[in-house]
Amino acid sequence: MPGYGFAQFEFGESLGGNIDNQSRSYTVLRKLGWGMNSSTWLVQDQSNQAYFALKALNGHCTQYAAKGVSWELPALQLTTSTPGHDPTPHCLRLVDHFFLPGKGSAERHLCLVTPLFGGDITRYARSSNFLRHPLPLAKRILLHTLRALNGLHECGVVHTDIKPDNIFFDITLSNEDIRMLLESDPSQRHQAEASYDGIVHAAVSQPLPLPTIEEFTKRTFVLGDLGSAQPIGQRITDHICPESLRPPEIYIGGLWDEKVDIWSFGCLVYEIVTGVPLFKTKEGSVGGVHLDATEIMLFQMIAHTREVFLAKQLSASPLAGDYFNETCRLKKKPGHYLYQTEHWVVRSSDGDISMDKAKEVVRFMRRCLRLDPADRTSTKELLQDEWFEDAA
Hints:
Layout: E1 14-19, E2 22-34, E3 38-45, E4 51-57, H1 59-67, H2 72-81, E5 96-101, E6 108-114, E7 117-120, H3 121-127, H4 135-154, E8 157-158, E9 167-170, H5 175-184, E10 193-195, E11 198-200, H6 213-216, E12 221-223, E13 230-231, H7 248-251, H8 259-274, E14 284-286, E15 289-291, H9 293-305, H10 311-315, H11 341-348, H12 355-368, H13 379-383
Antiparallel strand pairs: 1-2, 2-3, 3-4, 4-6, 5-6, 7-9, 8-13, 9-12, 10-11, 14-15
Helix pairs in contact: 4-8, 8-12, 11-12
């Protein structure tokens, strides 16, 4: 389909940008990876030889950005240079941006230049056979992520897509290490293949080597990928948050604000500590009653939070009537369940987390996991929680 293609860069190609009205150029060195909407490249600033990451949105998402449907660029600009805001090292920083003409089916690409990172915590966990992060490391990752969220909210930005894949860590490689890596493991291309754009030689994704476990525990973690970010007080789209991290107000069609990030963060606490998602998102049977995917999510939310939905929230949520009766109870009644979430934490840790520590994990989680968004604790208050006293 015309206009939808991915960026097609040549190794050694010079890409031009500008910042502060001064021209800057970057040399394409390697493809680091790609996702549904973009590809990421290792580039070198020709003026000072510094290495950066360049995220090139595909043609389709570049069109969205130009129309204001995608708010990634404004969000990055706000978090990088909001007057009076002291940027946290845990928020992604924008170095440069520019539009480039596309090749083939893509009309053009929005290119975002950011600092270079070593990878994301999901990739590291898979490569290192981590089923879960040890509690001290989990706290470090979560503390840094919460600082990032606080910075975003202070700048008027809601992330809406908090998940392990979007938590990055700073790089351990020096410029000399990268130069030697490029010499010993040259950038590669796939064999020629047919595509909508004709015959192409796509670049092979070659991520940077991962740090050792000892190095990883000392990294600075950064919340990245603002591709789904939205301004506080506006709702560009209601299709937000991964299903397992999606808050109740989205499922029942209610109004939402930055507190969606707090709910997602509470789910993230459990996932990073235990290695498994808190919520199951597929339809299934509970107590002999079949629940669809939304019903089973709402049921689990009640069971984990030990709360009930109140009439005030449900009456303001257009989809609530599909799932709740006039007494604010689920129409389908699988029984009365209150999950002992702390027992789940202990079982998942293979004995590494005591019941006392598990109770502290769950206590902290439940400050985030409140059915009514107004009851959720702010990022500033969460940062003062005693659970982080031994985190760095």
